[in-house]
């Protein structure tokens, strides 16, 4: 049974328990809303562990958004040295925020499951796939 590193599993939004099944059923960017699997297609782990569980990911999303906005301000100032007009900052920060919102949505949930769950989700590399699991089920296209 091959082990999957935590960094790889987080980057690819894999289930925290088996690190093989995808948390999301479709890709991050596209002309559709992101669809999260209710449970892991590989091991059956239920992602929403209690009602309202993913409300907490809003705080992680907020932290990601603030970090991105600060990085955007630093980048804008570094390239333009603009200190006279706030409009350049306002429009670019709003643009960065909108463009990265699917990223924040996805990785705030990943961070919640991997880092912010009080009891934690233990990694079980020995878990066997469900009989319903197919290799390409829920794979990113
Ligand atoms: Zn799983």
TrEMBL record:
<keyword id="KW-0812">Transmembrane</keyword>
<keyword id="KW-1133">Transmembrane helix</keyword>
<dbReference type="InterPro" id="IPR009325">
    <property type="entry name" value="DUF983"/>
</dbReference>
<keyword id="KW-0472">Membrane</keyword>
<feature type="transmembrane region" description="Helical">
    <location>
        <begin position="59"/>
        <end position="80"/>
    </location>
</feature>
<feature type="transmembrane region" description="Helical">
    <location>
        <begin position="86"/>
        <end position="105"/>
    </location>
</feature>
<dbReference type="Pfam" id="PF06170">
    <property type="entry name" value="DUF983"/>
</dbReference>
<protein>
    <submittedName>
        <fullName>DUF983 domain-containing protein</fullName>
    </submittedName>
</protein>
């Amino acid at each position: 049974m091959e082990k999957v590193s935590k960094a790889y599993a987080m980057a690819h939004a894999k289930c925290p328990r088996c690190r093989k099944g995808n948390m999301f059923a479709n890709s991050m960017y596209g002309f559709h809303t992101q669809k999260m699997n209710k449970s892991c297609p590989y091991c059956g782990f239920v992602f929403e562990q209690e009602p309202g569980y993913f409300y907490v990911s809003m705080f992680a999303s907020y932290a990601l958004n603030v970090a991105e906005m600060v990085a955007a301000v630093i980048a804008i100032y570094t390239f333009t040295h603009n200190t006279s007009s706030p409009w350049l900052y306002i429009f670019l920060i709003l643009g960065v925020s909108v463009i990265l919102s699917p990223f924040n949505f996805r990785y705030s949930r990943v961070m919640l499951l991997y880092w912010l769950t009080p009891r934690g989700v233990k990694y079980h590399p020995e878990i066997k796939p469900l009989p319903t699991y197919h290799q390409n089920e829920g794979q990113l296209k």
